[in-house]
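## retry 2 of 3
previous attempt timed out at serialization; input unchanged, resubmitting
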Amino acid sequence: MAIRVMDLVSGASLNCFHFKNPKGCVKSRSFSIRCSVPLSSSQGAATIDLGERPWKVSDARLVLEDGSVWKAKSFGASGTQVGEVVFNTSLTGYQEILTDPSYAGQFVLMTNPHIGNTGVNFDDEEARQCFLAGLVIRSLSISTSNWRCKQTLGDYLIERNIMGIYDVDTRAITRRLREDGSLIGVLSTEKSKSDDELLEMSRSWNIVGVDLISGVSCKSPYEWVDRTDLEWEFKSGGHSSETFHVVAYDFGIKSNILRRLASYGCKITVVPSTWAASETLKLKPDGVLFSNGPGDPSAVPYAVETVKQLLGKVPVFGICMGHQLLGQALGGKTFKMKFGHHGGNHPVRNFRNDRVEISAQNHNYAVDPASLPEGVEVTHINLNDGSCAGLAFPKLKIMSLQYHPEASPGPHDSDSVFGDFIAMMKQEKRNA
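## retry succeeded, writing output
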């Protein structure tokens, strides 16, 4: 084989190559390439103008409060945004994560490296908008393939003014978060801002002690009537034939919690986070739900006070933030975890039936069971770290979970807890 390479400096040449096939016959092909190479008059050296590159170059930075700077490529909205960086180990359900109000004020880093391949649709949203501060992923899918896809992930984030970055080492950042704990970071596509300026922004911002619930809660009461669509209903039979009126406090409630309650036969009135306990009692509910929500439960004493005023007067069920508020209302303490629980694969032991359930979790705070008064029962624990994952206090008609029993898009191991809530309301009716 013979090859002659063109001379780029001279500007023209003919590339030829010859090869022998297995029979020894010589064949040849040739093609010509010409390029214009301007010479720099000041340096006397040849430079090549490649023009616009056919691939995206790094145009964004993630600056963490520990001083590390991570170059990346942007998608979604542009600008500069500050938030707390947490990692999520879910393999599916990125649209549910994007619209989960519990992520308000946070950058969600997906450990699953490939995101965006199924696009987005209008059925999987958990709230009316995206509340998270930004999305951090390793690889952004260049195409979408799903029968329900209505839009690409990038276009979806642009419309909702949410920043995203990709082509960043998410494994390295995850290891750092596991070692050092959740870190404040700044995402920016603005070249005018220096790394030092972004670092100062990250170190001057704090999420602890901030009321994030008021920014995600509804502003006025409304009735919820939608059930889980039949094509997604995975439980058959066993639901109550009675109708129970539930008042659901919106601390950042997910739509699929409401759908599951409705599927179990509940009539639901959703009320704002600041709704007075006295107004709730006027509605004469059979039960009250305290929903999930973002941030520090210690930053919302008004919500704790509302919970206190309802204890013992009506059956109550707390999920995530609601679980933490119940813990505080009972006199217990909550604390900030090192990097929290975020993912769809957390094993939980249910002491009531002695089974292990795989759960979906999203929280940075936990209840300290040692601080709880006598009579409060720890019903579930997280098997990864032994933290409290569920409470019950039969005397005051209380039950709660630190994770998501509705678990859309899955797992569904804990869905039966809605039936437990129904049973508690049914028993209260019998005793009335």
